[in-house]
Design goal:
Layout: H1 3-47, H2 51-83
């Protein structure tokens, strides 16, 4: 067999293999690219939550702050009431102790 013919034949076989491989692998590579894009988008959404989640988080923080203020006010009123002497009941009152 002629060495030149063997070289040309090997080059043709490799070119055919590359072309066939590219045609067969193109849909797979596209699908993998879409999958990677989806993973990147999910990670981006985890790091930067959507607006409605941020708004809910802010509203929850405001509610927590308001509840803390109400707890402080209630504790103050309870302490104030505890420091006063209990009013004396009249003889005819039916108030339970």
């Amino acid at each position: 067999m002629d060495p030149f013919f063997a070289t040309v034949m090997a080059a043709e076989v490799m070119a055919l293999a590359i072309i066939v491989g590219g045609v067969l692998m193109f849909p797979t590579a596209r699908r993998m690219g879409r999958y990677v894009e989806m993973l990147i988008e999910e990670r981006r959404n985890r790091l930067n939550p959507p607006k409605d989640v941020q708004e809910l988080t802010e509203e929850l923080e405001r509610t927590r702050e308001e509840l803390a203020r109400l707890n402080e006010r209630q504790a103050f009123v309870e302490a104030l009431l505890a420091s006063r002497p209990a009013p004396a009941l009249a003889a005819g009152d039916d108030a339970a102790p």
